[in-house]
Structures are given as C-alpha cells and as structure tokens.
Amino acid sequence: MKSRNICKIIILLVLAFNVTGFAQCNSFAKGKCMPKLKPYLNTQQLCNTVLLSGDKTQLSSTFYYGDEYRLLICAEDALGKIQLNIRDAQNNIIFTTKGYGVIMWDFSVEATQDLTLEVVTPPISDTETIEKSGCVSILLGFK
Questions:
Q1: Total tally of structural domains belonging to the chain
Q2: pTM, 2 dp
Q3: Which strands, in side-by-side order, build the sheet including 56-63?
Q4: pLDDT tens digits, residue range 72-128?
Q5: Prior bond to 39 cis, omega within 30?
Q6: Radius of gyration (Cα) for the chain, nearest Å?
Q7: Residue 99 class from Cβ within 10 Å (0-12 exposed, 13-18 middle, 19+ buried)?
Q8: 5-33, pLDDT tens digit by residue?
Q9: CATH of the domain at 36
Q10: Which of 51, 66, 69, 93 is deepest in the core (most CB within 10 A)?
C-alpha cells in the first residue's frame, strides 16, 4: 500500500515539474523571443522545450515559394552556444551553424519544400560536473 502511494506522489511530482517547465518556457518565448519576430507575422508554429546538455529538438515545416521568412532560435544563456541544422526532405543537412546564443535568419526559398529545423545543445564538458538545462524556442515568422 505504501509503495503505491509513493508511486502516485512521484508521478504527481514529475507532472508538476513538466507543467512548470512548460509554463516557464512559454513565458521565456513570449517575453524574450516573440518581439524579435517583428515585422514578420507569427506562423503560430512554435516549439518550446526544456533541453539538457547534448539534447536536441526539431520542428518540421513547409516553406512556400514567394514568401519571406524569419527563423528565430532563442535559448537560455545557461545552455551555451547552440547549433542549428536545417535538413531537407531526404534528411540532408542544407544549412548549419557552429553555434550562436540567439539565431535569427531572414530568408526565402527557391521552391516550396518541407524542411526540418534541428536545434542541438552543446554536450557537457569534461570539466563540468552538473548537467545544464534551459528553455529553447523555435519561432517562425513570414511576410
């Protein structure tokens, strides 16, 4: 009976932590990142997540010929310099960065295509003993 109650408490704590982390990332995205999309209109496609050192997240989207886009990657400073990889439908990397704290890129495409945006956080270094974590947001705007 006691072990069942302990399991319930652990599950509730995990759920509470995830909800709190999600809310904090939404606040981070709205306060720090969204204003940087202007004058582009938000596509309403937003990826907010908490990442640890060496983690990655991705967002797939269709980019249409004739539209101009702004891609914005925002990450909390604690994560260090993040890397962006853009992959085509065949999973080939067509664009990559060596890592910047905030990545903003205005672009258009030569043909309508599906692309996957992959954000990778730096791994924990040999001199660090504690894994880092922080919010990462991927935002898309168009005009």
A1: 1
A2: 0.74
A3: 56-63, 113-120, 83-87, 93-96
A4: 998 888 888 889 999 999 999 988 887 665 688 899 999 999 999 999 998 888 787
A5: yes
A6: 18
A7: middle
A8: 444 444 444 433 444 444 678 888 888 88
A9: 2.60.120.380
A10: 51
Who's near 91: CB < 8 A, 6+ residues apart? 116
Token pair belonging to 93: 């990397």
Side-chain-facing half-sphere of 54: CA atoms under 13 Å: 7
Those residues with Cβ within 8 angstroms of residue 113's Cβ, 6 or more apart along the chain or in another chain: 62, 63, 88, 89
- Phi/psi region, residue 99 (left: phi>0; alpha: psi -120 to 50; beta: rest), is left
Reference 102, options 29, 52, 26; nearest CA is: 29
φ and ψ at 90, to 5 degrees? Answer: -95, 10
**Separation CA 38–CA 103 (nearest Å):** 15
Domain residues for the domain of 76 are: 2-142
